[in-house]
Write a structure and sequence with these properties.
Helix content is about 25%, strand content about 25%. It is of the alpha/beta class. The protein has two domains: about 170 residues, HUPs (Rossmann fold, 3-Layer(aba) Sandwich); about 130 residues, TPP-binding domain (Rossmann fold). The protein has a seven-stranded parallel beta sheet with strand order 7-11-6-1-4-5-12, with helices on both faces. A five-stranded parallel beta sheet has the order 14-13-15-16-17. β9 and β10 form a beta hairpin. The protein is elongated, with a radius of gyration of 21 Å. The structure holds flavin-adenine dinucleotide. The site of flavin-adenine dinucleotide has 26 residues, from α6, α7 and α9.
Length: about 325
């Protein structure tokens, strides 16, 4: 049976949700799943993974904070030692940095940002959007190891309830690159790529202050991040880290609410795979309504506060 090696990220001694989704993708391909973790807190985080489809976890000592090339060599070595035929990581910043390096060390191609992974007879197939979502590509690899990153929110975490064997791996050392310091982003807000609910504002928010009502709506949801169109970012109302679209982040949340956004193709490229899309716009002919599952024609400054009150009431009622 093919063994899948999954790189699992963790923070505060717990695995990150994006990595649990990646484990979920792995369990749909094989019953033999090995998680590989790195750095302080790895052992503690690994204990939770038995419930999410991993039979084994290998904790690498890593370096503090970390070495991109050193980690890649250590992870590639684990794939080789375990006879892994599949290597997966979540398409987070860390996963996107690590995976091409690992794939290159394994002399394999990397399929990045996949939205589906399936078995097709003896081979594995990856599906991913190309050309800003205009084309959906189905890909197969002839390389020795099938390497892919999984798009956030595109896969479900597996709830298997099994046990896990945790062991310690080795680090080869000899780092060429060493990250000296990582600064946490301010406010501890959810990243748009990871949040299950994303509320994005556009030029229709009028100014930076206008976004306050979106922050309030996000707070009412409790699990939402605020995103922005490029027009809002270019105007200096929000940071580039929040930009959704072709030249921003690609998100795929369960719920995407586009507020005062017209629906330019470059914006759609970043959010069209969201599960449910809601658009709020005063122009009934705005292109965003063609993609939206639900549309509200109205002024954002009237609709959004009413929505916030409704969400808060629903959450208070449990
Ligand atoms: C190479 C390239 C890359 C790009 N990359 C990106 C990208 O990554 N992300 C991105 O978003 N864009 C990107 N763009 C820009 C994109 O083409 C659009 O210009 C941009 O998305 C428009 O942003 P917007 O919808 O906020 O603004 P607009 O198009 O100006 O739309 C504002 C909308 O708000 C509505 N509105 C105004 N006031 C109210 C109100 N009070 N109540 C309700 N509705 C209201 C209007 O009816 C309108 O539909 C890119 C463009 C290029 C050329």
């Amino acid at each position: 049976m093919t063994t899948a090696i999954v790189f699992v990220e963790h923070s505060d001694n717990a695995p990150r949700r994006a990595s649990l989704e990646c484990l979920g993708a792995a369990t749909s391909l094989t019953d033999s799943v090995v998680a590989v973790l790195s750095g302080a807190g790895a052992e503690e985080a690994a204990k939770a993974l038995g419930a999410h489809g991993a039979g084994r976890a290998i904790c690498l000592p890593g370096s503090d904070p970390f070495s991109p090339d050193g980690l890649a060599r250590d992870v590639a070595a684990v794939v080789g030692e375990q006879g892994g035929g599949i290597f997966l990581a979540a398409a987070t910043s860390r996963g996107r940095d690590l995976s091409p390096r690992v794939a290159a060390l394994l002399d394999s191609a990397l399929f990045s940002d996949c939205t589906a992974l399936v078995r097709a007879g003896e081979s594995l197939r990856a599906t991913r959007p190309w050309l800003a979502g205009k084309v959906i590509a189905t890909l197969e690899s002839s390389g020795p190891v099938f390497c892919a990153t999984t798009r956030l929110n595109a896969f479900n975490a597996a709830e298997t309830g099994g046990t896990i064997e945790v062991s310690t791996g080795n680090s080869g050392g000899d780092f060429r690159e060493l990250v000296k310091e990582l600064s946490a982003k301010s406010g501890g807000q959810l990243d748009v790529k990871e949040a299950p609910v994303v509320i994005s504002g556009g030029r229709g928010m009028k100014d930076a202050d206008g976004f306050k009502i979106l922050d309030e709506l996000a707070a009412a949801f409790g699990n939402a991040a605020v995103g922005a169109s490029r027009a809002a970012v270019d105007a200096g109302w929000r940071s580039h880290a929040e930009q959704v679209g072709q030249t921003g982040k690609v998100v795929s949340p369960q719920l995407y609410i586009a507020v005062g956004i017209s629906g330019a193709i470059q914006h759609l490229a970043g959010m069209k795979t969201s599960t449910t899309i809601v658009a709020i716009n005063k122009d009934a002919d705005a292109p965003i309504f063609k993609l939206a599952d639900y549309g509200i024609v109205g002024d954002v400054f009237e609709v959004v506060p009413a929505l916030t009150a409704a969400v808060a009431t629903l959450r208070a009622e449990g």
